[in-house]
Amino acid sequence: MIELDNVGYSYGGAELYAQISLTLTPGSFHFLTGPSGAGKTTLLKLCYGELLATTGTVRLFGTDARNYGRDDVAMMRRRIGVVHQDCQFLDHLPIAENIVLPLKVAGREAEAEANLPDLLQWVGLTDQAQQLPPQLSGGERQRAALARAVIMSPEVIIADEPTGNIDWDMSQRLLTLLIELNKMGKTVLVATHDLNLIRAAKSEVSARLLRLKGGRLQAGVEL
Ligand SMILES: Nc1ncnc2c1ncn2[C@@H]1O[C@H](COP(=O)(O)OP(=O)(O)OP(=O)(O)O)[C@@H](O)[C@H]1O
C-alpha cells in the first residue's frame, strides 16, 4: 500500500538518501530506527505524501504520489493516520475537540460525537477529555495524538517518535495500543530511537526492523 522504489531525497543541498526501496504491505508492522539526523522523519513524510521524492517513485495506494491532485491528496491522507513528533494540537481547544477535529473538518459531526467516548476510553483519557493539551502529561498527549490519528479509521498508522519524551510505563502503554491497531489489520510504521521498545514489541507482534544510516536503508536488521 506504500511503496518506495529507488527513492532519493534532498532538501536542496546534498542528497539525504539515494535509492531507498521499501514496501509496506497491508497489515505489516515496521519499526524505523537510525541515528539522529539520518532522515527518519523525512522518510515518514515521503510515506504519507507530505514530501515528494527528488528521485525515484513513491506509490501510495497504487498511485504515484506525484499524480495526486489537491482533492485526491486530501482523500489519500485520510487513509493514513499520522502521530507527529510534537503532537501538533490546537492548545486553546480541549483535548476531546482536538481528537475529533479531523472528522468535524470532513463534515462528519454526528460520527465524531458517536465515536468519541469509545476512543477516549481506548486511550484511557475519558477523565481528561475537557482539559487543554498543555494540561496533559507527555504520555497523555501522545495517546491523544494516537486517538486523533485513528479517528478517520485510516488503513495505515505512521508514528514519529511517539515515545520520545515519556516514561517506560507510558511507552509500553502506547506500544500496546499500536499493537492492538495492527492486530485489527492496520499497517503500522513507527520511527523510534528506543531499542527497548522494539525489544518489548518483538514478543507481541511480528515486526520488521528498518535501519536508516548513512543514506542507506537496511531491512530486517537484528537488534
Ligand atoms: N525542512 C528542512 N529543510 C532543510 N533541511 C532539513 C529540513 N528538515 C530536515 N532537514 C535536515 O535533514 C536531515 C534529516 O532530518 P530528519 O528530521 O528527517 O532526521 P531524523 O532521523 O528524523 O532525526 P531525529 O532522530 O533527530 O528526529 C537533518 O540533517 C535535518 O537537519
Per DSSP, the total helix count is 7
CATH architecture: 3-Layer(aba) Sandwich
Bound small molecules, deduplicated: adenosine-5'-triphosphate
Spatially, the strands of the biggest sheet line up as 6-7-8-3-9-10
Mean pLDDT: 91
CATH top level is Alpha Beta
Stated plainly, the CATH topology is called Rossmann fold
- Unreliable parts: none
The number of distinct structural domains comes to 1
What is the succession of H and E elements? EEEHEEHEHHHEHEHEE
Helix and strand composition category:
alpha/beta
Largest sheet: 6 strands, mixed
Strand content: 15-25%
Q: Percent range for helical residues?
A: 25-40%
Number of strands: 10
Shape label: globular
CATH superfamily: P-loop containing nucleotide triphosphate hydrolases
Radius of gyration: 17 Å
Amino-to-carboxy terminus distance: 26 Å
Domain ABC transporter: 2-223
Pfam families: ABC_tran
Protein name: Cell division transport system ATP-binding protein
GO cellular component, one term: plasma membrane
